[in-house]
Specification:
Elements (H helix, E strand, L loop, with lengths): L8 H7 L1 H10 L2 H18 L7 H5 L6 H11 L3 H8 E3 L5 E3 L21 H5 L7 H4 L1 H7 L4 H11 L1
Antiparallel strand pairs: 1-2
Helix pairs in contact: 3-10, 5-6
């Protein structure tokens, strides 16, 4: 099912949060990690990120030094200008976007810096890697932001 087209998927995710948490705590990590690539492919065969862009509207990636160098070059800005204009330090002393939604998000949900986007953005929602199981709280949070995460947890938890 394409959860991004279901207007109630966020509510369903909230309702199933305890179930998802219990599942993630008890899951066989190795078995789950082996299942993720095919579930990721299956989810993104029906879910189009441009339909919601919730990640860009609700989260900020961490901008690492290589990201800042690459993006500032792409935008024709000095690194300090990029930081001053778009970024701030968070409580963990990481660079994140100053505003939500992300300043690089276009009105059609495309990304102005897509080809040079931060590594966090390129990897999000981590549904095809071990972060999905190793960072359980992040996965639970993402299940209410990204329909693909919800869809995968829905399939895994039965």
């Amino acid at each position: 099912m394409d959860w991004s087209s279901d207007p109630n998927w966020k509510k369903k995710s909230r309702d199933k949060r305890k179930l998802f948490k219990k599942f993630l705590e008890r899951a066989d990590e190795a078995k789950l990690i082996r299942q993720l690539p095919s579930l990721h492919e299956e989810a993104f065969a029906t879910i189009n990120c441009l339909d919601c862009a919730n990640c860009c509207k609700n989260h900020s990636p961490t901008f690492k030094t290589p990201d800042i160098k690459r993006i500032s070059k792409f935008l024709g800005l000095k690194e300090t200008e990029l930081i001053e204009k778009y970024l701030r330090l968070d409580e963990d002393n990481d660079f994140v976007v100053k505003q939500s939604p992300c300043a690089f998000l276009n009105t059609d949900n495309t990304c102005r810096i897509y080809d040079v986007r931060p590594s966090d953005c390129a990897r999000y929602p981590y549904t095809d890697e071990d972060v999905f199981i190793k960072r359980k709280q992040l996965t639970l949070t993402n299940s209410g932001v990204c329909p693909a995460v919800f869809s995968i947890l829905e399939k895994l938890s039965g």
